[in-house]
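User: Please predict structures.

Assistant: First:
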Amino acid sequence: MDESGRNDGHGRSRGKISPILWLTAVFATAHLLVSMKSSVRYPRAEDCQNRDDRYQGGGGGDDPFDEMHRRLYAMMMTNGRPGGDRSSAARKEYTPDMIPKSSGGLHDSDRMLLGRLYRNASSVFEFGLGESTSIASYVGVPRYSGVDSDAVWVRKARERSGANDRFHFTFADIGPTGPWGYPENNATAKIPYSYQTAPLYDELEPFDVYFVDGRYRVACICSSMLHAMSRGANMSFVLFGMHDWGREWYKVVLEVGDIVHESKHLVVLRARPNATKSNIGKIWEDHIWDPR
């Protein structure tokens, strides 16, 4: 009870606070606030400028997000180690009995051709994951990226490549798919973006070999050529492979590519010297929605 005989509503009595205790509490609180203010370091204008410079590529005026993306890309390429050398991966020769064979339609001559190409390549991009991905892992491709429209195949490819942190996999969400990754609704607007360009757009450097063994093969050969050109590749050295070459509807790519290697079911092309971005883009436009 206080002097008026009231309690605090919880059955606890409220008494008077000693003036000495009250003053002590006031001074302690004031001292705490002053000490906190003196210990807090507020950002200064020059600090903000330095922070901005960090995202300007050394004063180059680049967009901060783009600069951030380039830094993280470089970190991935060197496996997170400053000055890391991605070319140090152990390289091995391949023969068809080295890894389990799949039912994806590769002939032994196709496997041998891929093994040679990948063994000598410093970088590989694949549309469609499978046995070829395992070959790339086995021979020790230093830099690899691949995309598939089937999430199960992406998981399997990751598992088969083991703890290979040089390999980067992308699942292209093109909606529900059936056998061999074909879309159930080929009119879905996000398909061309998700499958044909988005996986390549994030790749800041060209690849030595682009291998197409998934969906939208003609369109993907064209997007691969345009990616290599846009990233400053020497096109006389870049190779473009395609599986199931015997299918007549794929032959249109010969308008912009010359055959340099061929096996049972596989062809390897090099962009023709007179192939232009406009020529390639026209073929791509005509085949955006062809899932074969």
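Second:
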Amino acid sequence: MLTYMFVPIFHIQTFMLIHYNSTIYFFFYLVCKSCLVKHLEENNSCPTCQIVIHQSHPLQYISFDRTMQDIVFKLVPGLQLDEIKREREFYRIRGLPYPKEVPAGTEIDDDKTAQDQAAADSDYHRTDEQVNIGLECVASHLKSLKKKFLRVSSQATITHLKKFIAVKVLDGSDKYRDIDILCNDELLGKDHTLKFVYVTRWRFREPPLKLQYRPKLDL
């Protein structure tokens, strides 16, 4: 099981496979979670650079990083399913109950489940993690949005934003393919979620996430 620690002053760019990640604030290293916890039971310093994490309670500075875990699961096809299978096998070999399994004999109310799902679908993703974004026009011959700042679901994609912009400035969502959206002057893929963009292009910057739009360039 791999995890990571991050250090803003030592920014290490690397691709990491992460399973149930833990973050030690101020550090950025690829480590094994089990080994990290075992190390911190006897030590109070980082196992990689030896910097003291906390004099007396280093374990209290470990927390889950669900965002990075979600990103990695999306980037690596089949990884999440493989991890679940390995986790189940771990408990099976040791004769232990799988903690995430629904107990046998537990009645599942299908009607309630359906109602809950319907309620979730009808709230327009207001209960999702939200992202604050700013949309700036970088083409003089294209209209600017009257309201440049939005708060939307982190699961919204670049295509969703393109359709929104097309409705506002091109008078029709069907023209969304005529729009390019950029971040830090880099063209964004149509299927990128805002969560992915924020983590990979805006992680250590102050909100809102600043995006630019322009007419599509035919290359």
